[in-house]
Amino acid sequence: MKFKKIILAAIIVIAAQSTYAQYLGDVLRFSQFQNSNTARFEALGGTKSAIGGDLSSLYGNPAGLGMFSKSEFSFTPTLRLRNNDISLSNTSATSSNLDLNNVGVVFNTKTYKTKDLDKGLISLSFGIGYQKKGSYRNDFNYGLTTNKNGLGDFFAQNATKENKSQANLAYQINGAAYDSFLINDRGINTTTYDPITSLTSDQLQVVNRTGGNSSVDFSLGANISNQVFLGATVGLSSFRYSSIEKTNEIGLFRQPGTTNNFDYNVDYTRNFDTNGSGINLKLGAIVRPSKEFRLGVFIESPTWYSVTDNYSETLYNNLDPIKGTDSFLFEYNLRTPLRINGGLAYFFGNRGFISADIGYEDFSTINFSSSNSQTDIDTNRDIKSQYKNIINYNVGTEYKITDKFLLRAGFQSLGNPYKTLNNSDYTVNSYSAGFGYRFGTYYLDMAYVNSSNFSTYSNYVLTANNQPTTNINTKRNNVSLTFGVRF
After folding, report:
1. Which of 46, 80, 76 is nearest to 61 (CA)?
2. Residue 184: in which H helix or E strand, if any?
3. What is the pTM of this model?
4. How far apart are CA 250 and CA 65, in angstroms?
5. Radius of gyration, alpha carbons of the chain
6. Residue 400 contacts by C-beta under 8 Å, 6 or more apart in sequence?
7. pLDDT in tens, 409-424
């Protein structure tokens, strides 16, 4: 039993060392998030550094809580619509889901004073809220024809890396590939493997991703002389990422030692299930030097996550009862980048305003640490070499048509975090618009946000980097509604 545990531990270490590229992608995925907004601030392009008095201050600049004069509650459901344009098959795939974007409450209290009510500490506001900071949900599928880069090539590569004969292969999926006649050893060299599948085969890629990044935030804001507003937030963050990524391949293999060809039909499936929990801190300030201008800034600390990663991969032969599965449990710590945001707003009377924000974060400062020092070295080295700092921009405007009805519009640009990757631009631009309606102590806001982002996908990687890879342009259309009440 002790010997089996030693062998299992060795396999897990080898797997962690050989798949650190997986963690390179994961740490960026879990570090890229946007603090949530009510529908009002969604329509404004997410500008909230210098604009306060809204529940979005719970999730952005906490100094904005200092501008509350009453207590308030709101919740924001969001309908998310996605369309994936897939280059390799020239097809499209659509999906949708309904999320609770945020829900929060702010309690405002006046401070007791015996002197000038416009000087010193005027009020305090305490808020608690739940926010969805990112959604990982996405579904797509597409077909293709391989070209000397099918599953036989993949498993021949991996089995050769083991440097073991067929009877001693440590990974069950490599053994299943051998038994399913995807690969065969060279005979005179029983530790080197070659694909015996046809040069071209038909593949179907199916991807189903779920999960998201969320936070429960506790915020405090202060109003000092109606000119300076200060705030702080403690955020308890968590995320869950699940993905089932399957390659079905159908083709012909040649039986070793003969000229006979036979059909094969296999599924190679990778299952990801990753959970993380952490904590962060935000500090902010807003200054109102005049009635027309507001200046704001807030700093968001790194989020320190503890992460548990459950990963498994399976090869299943659809024509014979052959199956191989390898599972790995890996735990690590993740530190996301520091974020700095600043902005200004100009108010034109009581009719409306225009606001602009700028933000900075450096993804090359992401830190990965675990019990496997080699994985840490490899991952952190590639983080620094592949990721860079970015500048984000937001601009938004609001105009009051009547005392009850308001119109809004905005734009947001999120920078490309990659230094160089396929000579592609991974900047994400979003356009937004919406309206608000006030009726007594209640209000209703709506926002529509249109954005698109570019990505690439492949379910496995070949040493020659010629694996089947597709470009995916994902178009997103989100509709948010916020219902709130002041009390």
Report:
1. 46
2. strand 183-185
3. 0.89
4. 59
5. 27
6. 350, 351, 352, 406
7. 999 999 999 997 666 7
What are the phi and psi torsion angles at 351 (to 5°)? -90, -20
Tokens of 426: 């991974």
Which two structure tokens, joined as six digits, stand for 214?
A: 């969320």
Candidates 3.30.70.660, 2.80.10.50, 3.40.630.30, 2.40.160.60; CATH matching 2-150+197-486 = 2.40.160.60
Cβ-contact 339, 360 below 8 angstroms:
yes
- Give CA–CA dist 430/451, Å, rounded: 4
Domain ranges of the chain: 2-150+197-486
Whether residue 50 contacts residue 293, with contact meaning beta carbons closer than 8 Å, is answered with no
User: Which tokens in the block code for residue 49?
Assistant: 């550094």
151-162 vs 172-179: helix axis angle to the nearest 10? 120
**Which residue type is seen at 366?**
I
Q: Which has more confidence, 124 or 6? A: 124
Positions of E strands within 44-149: 72-86, 91-110, 121-135, 138-145
Chain length of the chain: 487
Contact (Cβ atoms closer than 8 angstroms) between residue 94 and residue 83: yes
Least confident span in 205-209, 255-259, 281-285, 422-426: 422-426
Per the DSSP assignment, residues forming a β-bridge with 305 are 278, 334
3-class DSSP assignment, residue 416: coil
338 contacts 367 by C-beta, under 8 angstroms: no
Beta strands in 225-258 (DSSP E): 228-254
H or E segment to which residue 16 belongs: helix 2-18
Of the candidates 421, 415, 417, 413, the residue with the CA atom closest to the CA atom of residue 364: 417
Q: What is the pLDDT of residues 50-98, one digit of tens each?
A: 999 999 999 999 999 999 999 999 999 999 999 999 998 889 989 999 9
